[in-house]
Structures are given as structure tokens and as C-alpha cells.
């Protein structure tokens, strides 16, 4: 009888682990938070400023680099009991601006943030490693993919720099400013007044540009949405004390198609400036390391092993 009591106690002790080892079945809730790395963004400046930079032998690239940020998400899904799960997820990511770079020059006075928020439809598959000697009541790896729609916002993104203008660029900036002055001045005159106007009456800037201080500033404060996609890989650690609850640790790659965000570029010298706004295409790629919780609202009970019938006591034959 002592043997059967020990077997019964062992079965009762292992029953919670057996329940946890089963794949997620039915409705579940999830949430996670962690660190987010936003890949640098880059685009090209067009228009008059872009042409001026190109003619001066400078790069037309405008680039944003971000500090390490954070990401958070919540989800609701359904497990089919065979390792497959489908879910709907809402997410949010935020990274503070580290620096703007324009024409190869870093703009040190940088501020603002890039935020992304979206809704995704995900599919996951949980792997049962019990055939490899690893109990799924202790560890269950999973992978997943998702598609959806996300909005990217530049919130007060800006950067500026004051420096001596590069050789050749100052001349072109002054020439461009003079052209702007002439256009604005003549726009206020009639055709007859223009015909009678002396050549020296048009306002011009005449400067020694060999040591001209210039200022460059970039500003972006806009939102755009587009198709989003992601891939996930992680580990789930079931919590024995709470059937249905698991701690998750995962890596996520999240990206969207290029967003067109309004960006204003200002170049100034000698108290005059060129100010232009462009819709620049920005990439949006993110890498996240996250910790979370997942709770299955209905965990099927563990199958109870049938106990073997107690053998009948041996009858000793009566002695005569």
C-alpha cells in the first residue's frame, strides 16, 4: 500500500505541470513592454535648397538618428490547442531624437521624438520540445508574423547649427537670397514701373563670403500612416502557481512602408534666409526586446491518470 500512496502523491504533484504543458486553447490576453531601437532615417532634400547643395558638391541627404527608446503593446487572441494562435495587437513606440544631419553636417541642437502607433493581426506557432527532453511546462519557444497599419509621428523634431559656410556654398546661398529679393521686389511693381527702374535700384546683398557665418535649421512636425509588418521570436515560461499564466521574453522586428512627412529646411546668411517645406520619405524600422505576460482565460484540466485497482488480499488456505 505504501507504493500506491507514493504513486498517487506523485500524480497529484505533477498534475499542474501537465496542464501547463498543453498548448494555449481558447481566449487569451497578453501585454509586453521593453526597449526599442529605431534605425536611422534618411531622405533627400529637393527643390532650390537641394540643387544649391548639389551644385556646391555637398550631399543632399537629410538623416535622423535616435536614442534608445521604449515600446509597449497589448493583445487579445485565440489559441487552437495545436500550437497555432491568432491575435489582434495594439502597439506604441517612442524614440527621442539624438541628432539631425544635413549635407554631412551634424545639427547639435536637436530635440523632439519619433512615435509610431498601430494595430496588427498576428499569427503565432508554439513549439512543444518534449520530444527533445525539454518539458513544455518549463519552456515553450514560439515564432510569429504580423501585418497591419501604423501611423508615424514626428513630434517637434528639429535641429540647427551655426557655422562658417563651406567654400562655394556661401556664394550660392547669397546668390539665391538675392534672386529671392529681386523676385519679391519686382512682384510689387507694375510693368511700367519695372521698365523705368534703374538697374541699381533692385536690393542686393554684397558680402565677402570667404568668412560668412551661416545657419541651417530643420523642422518636422507631421503624421503619416502606411502598411506595417513585423516578425517575432520568443520564449514562454509557464508559471506553475497560476495555470494559464506565462512570462514571455521576445525579440521583434517592426517596420512600415516609407512615410512622407512634412519637413521644413531653412538656410540663412547675412540676415536673409531661404525657407522651404518638403514631403520627405522616411524609413521606419524598429528592433525591440520585450518582457511580458500572457494569460489563457480557459486552461483545460489535466487528464487524470486512472488508478490501478487495489489487488485483493491474498487468502491463505485454512490448515486442517
Automatic annotation (TrEMBL):
Gene3D superfamilies: 2.40.160.20. The keyword Signal applies. Keywords: Signal. The keyword Signal applies. Residues 1-21 form the signal peptide. InterPro entries: OMP/PagP_B-barrel (IPR011250). This is OMPC.
